[in-house]
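Schema walk-through. Below, the input block comes first and the output block second. Nothing else is stored per chain. Lengths vary across the set, and this one has 102 residues.
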Amino acid sequence: EIDSRLSFLGRTIPFPFMINAMTGGTETTRAINQSLARLARKAGIPLQLGSMRIALEDASSLDSFRVARDEMGKEGILLANIGPDATVEEVATIMEAIEADG
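--- output ---
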């Protein structure tokens, strides 16, 4: 009788849970992000990536983050993450790079 669904970023998720700010930036963390994205997709919950500052400084690390969108598809809710010192342009760059929802 309990309905745990809620609206988040204009979409319905089944539970008020998300995977929050884990990792990224290396080949090892690419595999972790891929696994976390797979889990998030199967559970229908959002995934927030670890800080993407490194992707701004080293474009070769972007794939370790981008893999999450590739795994989740367009229907998954994916959140970018960067520190509070980021410029509006930097935020826009990382959001566009991974097609983030927020």
